[in-house]
Design goal:
Shape: globular
Strand content: 25-35%
Number of strands: 13
Largest sheet: 9 strands, mixed
Distance between the termini: 93 Å
Amino acid sequence: MKRHVVALIFLLLILTTGCYGKTEIDQLAMVMSIGFDKGTDGDYLISFKIAKPTSKGVDKSKSYLLFTFNSKATSEAADQLYKVMDKAPFFGQTRLIIISEELAREGITPIMDYVTRHYHLRRNVKLLISKDKVSNILDVPFSGEDYDALNLTSRIRNLNKDTQNETITIGNFSSKLAVGKIQPVIPGEEILSNNDTNVKFSEKQKEIAIQDLGVFKGDHLIGWLNSDETAGYMYTTGKARISKILVPLEENQHITLMFSKYKISKKIEEAEDGLPVIKLSLTADAYLEEAKASVTPKTWLDFTLLGEKAAEKTVQELIENAINKSKGYNADIFGFGQLIFRERPDLWRTLEPQWDEIFPNLKVVVEANVTIKRSGATTSPPFESKEERNTPIIE
């Protein structure tokens, strides 16, 4: 009996030929980015940026293939790739979905319908809103990584560690739309040129920058938060792990602080009229990274007290400006409605039907408490003479 079992297993191993219907990796075209512009006659102008394998020393501008089609549907444009390529397009490695501002203002539900249904597109694919034509942005060679999708996702990840921008994926954008108690945001990107910026690029004339934060109401882009307002948004949501902040002082002086640790707490109180009051309290430990100010060891205590008060005022203004901007758009991007629903579901039931009328007038009280823990490697700036220092000169 055992011999029959062994013989059967041996026969099955011989007949097994591997995975049926699978395509070898060298026969796949890796679609790294998909871009959406407004096309003609209500169609989309859909761009696919495909990684082209390169060897060391090959020009990075030649490391990709870019195809753009005017189509009624994304699936139709994707099918066009089969007609112009000798490899099968594969979306399992797609890193970015980029949508033009013009399209985003009209609503992106049709686009999100495709990208959420596609079984190869992952939920962690990043979303960006382009202030320029997407097909033009995709054709700008990048500094750094060979493939722009890897380059941009690395930038998004680094910006999110600081307070400079948010990371938004297909998954969390879709979930915010579904829940409805918090309005979505998506980071913006645009082309920077040597001719119109205060930044100069030594090797080329253009570069892509991720900056500003697009504010949505439902699936429609309705406006932008600038860099300072984006920082205020990041502080309020508590999503950044570290933060660097420029704090103005008196008489054209300033300091730069690094928040090594901070947290924000949110409380709900009810006013006499029955409406909620949101109280935000931010506490942060900081160290001095740079001082364009008069500071010596003799005045260090007074200086830190002055810097802490100025930093608290700066953070408070950043948060208040971001909240006021969102109130102007009537878009609750901070999730205050969701906070009330979670903490006070009974109160939320009475507020929800009129939330669009309540939110623009919602009272939000902001407090900040900053403590400067360290001065860096020294409390003394460089001086011109020994008399101005109270520490020995190292000859």
